[in-house]
Amino acid sequence: MFDPHIPHVAVIEQRIQEAPNIFTLRLRYDWDVEEAYEFDPGQFNMVTLFGVGEIPISIVNDPLENTFFDHTVRVVGRDSDGLSRLQPGDRVGIRGPFGRGWPLARMKGKDVLLITGGLGCAPLVSVIRYLVRRRDYYGHIQILQGVKHSNDLIWREQYEEWGKLRDVNILLAADVATKGWKGQQGMVTELINQITLRPQRTVALLCGPELMMLSAIASLREMGLSDGSIWFSMERNMQCGIGQCGHCQIGPHYVCQDGPVFNYSDLADFLGAKGF
Amino acid sequence: MNSQTHLAHNRRPGFLPRGDLSLLFSALKEAGYQIVGPRVRDGAIQFGPLDGPDALPVGVTNDQQPGHYRLQSGDGQRLFDWNHGPQGLKPLCFAPREVLWEESSDPFGYRRTLPEVTKTAVIGVRACDLAALSIQDHHFLLEMRPDPHYRQRRESLLLIGVDCAQSAATCFCASTGDGPALDGGYDIGMSELDEGFLIWSDSDQGRAITDSLSLQPAEDSQLEAMLQATDRAAQEQQRKMPDAEELLQLYKRLNHSHWEDVAERCLSCGNCTAVCPTCFCYQAEHETALTGDAAEMVRSWDSCFSPTHSSMGHFQVRSNSKQRYRQWLTHKLAGWQVQQRRIGCTGCGRCIAWCPVGIDLTQEVTAVLEEGSLYV
Questions:
Q1: ipTM of the complex model
Q2: Closest C-alpha among A238, A268, A229 to residue A56
Q3: Does B248 touch chain A if contact means CB atoms closer than 8 Å?
Q4: Smallest CA–CA separation between A67 and chain B, in Å?
Q5: Residue A202: C-alpha distances to residues A42, A195, A198, A224 (Å)
Q6: DSSP A4
Q7: What is the CA radius of gyration of chain B?
Q8: Which residue positions in chain B have pLDDT lower than 50?
Q9: pTM of the model
């Protein structure tokens, strides 16, 4: 009988230092028969560090890259600090993928607006890679990315590459900017006023701090986007990944199972309500 | 519910004289069951292993009030004139603490640890707790991801239910539709009369036992007494849970001033979630051997009243008693309706009796649903 609690062993193939406190682990399952690892952009894995703990981490690849999967992690606590010390050849436990990812089918043929703040970009990077790889199926792509400090921006080269693609518009903002910063100074939400969009043809994908998303959603609705076309990724205390342990509930919704990607209309009553 | 119809469909009781109850115990033992049932321990009714009917609580009744639970002993011969103790069936299926898996560093890997179980007959289970078990079954045995640990324990149980012939002051199962008469979810049903027991089965495993008891046919007057007892118990109930549809309004009342009022009394101790037969939250944590080369993933009951329940590392989503009590109540009475199509309360009233300050959810929810001072 399948046991949803038991991790599968995965081996670290590569470790990439993205920024002083941010690293990526490229993992491959420790199976004799190599099987494709199937997931949707926006889903996450529970990553277990031997003897320490288990934390939820987004998958940042395109799903076609299915012989390995990447987790980009910022060091914030005991588990992530422990993971940061692992080297190629070391092993971790993986359960997943869990949850509901971005609404890929609904995005087809539409303009896509992606708004992210902080390392909130991780759940969105997978979908950016997905869109870029299938560029012809989507309309205008706009990426608004905000960071606290200009040094926090990771994947700079990728952003530059994406920016060169046909009809892809990238706007960057940093609260604190150092010399040489090519983006703007300020908050990501200020960038929304600088773009034009076709409200009937646009799907918006958001990820980042809740206050940022609330403010962005208010602006988008003012610009004429319908509630059904606004999607965002939520973060809560996720432990089991299967809607069982009860921690991540927002009202009647399990973030780990019904999310982490939600449509705005599903969570409108709870977004911004303190305690939910 | 119409009791007569209920009787016609489900119950074909036979009669077992009081002095012959040991026959039921023998039949269970012969069929290979260990027997668990109610005993008096530390001043409360608690389920534990029973050798025979002599260990059952003779003449014991209970006085349950907000923040109050006392057993009383009388001269009576009856064995089931109490309602319930602090725990129902929950600990028997959803263990308070258990190891989910073990890991070792050499060879590196994870190994499942399933509980060792013995066929167990649980005697004296109440209708509210059977309803609660079916709610927990729904949560832990979902088709797409049944929990192997829960399932192992659950499948080992033979459930022998008993009608409630009386209600405690904290009971309100009649208003949630879950009692006081048994209504499914058991293998063998019992109703206690002064002269003995009416017994019937509701599953093949149950029938295998009752068939071996050579029960006497029940007399009409006995059937009448059985129905009257549960009707009387229902009428005795002083508390009432509002209708499910009305409870869905709770999510529209997140800013009601009464949440502050409860928070002034609530200690966030988590007693209510510990005694609640439906609360299912758990945490799973690594426990590492001193040698460092092995560890276990240990699952234990958690509570939405604990500070870590909503912890995101750098902050808590629910940082105070107001938010935690509101989470508990709105989930139990509204959220559950979205998740399981029924409320997560079966009217057992344990959270009222075992709350150290006597908070009464039926009163609190009624206050929140009343048009009151809303604040932002």
A1: 0.92
A2: A238
A3: no
A4: 21
A5: 19, 12, 6, 10
A6: T
A7: 22
A8: 1-6, 8-9, 376
A9: 0.94
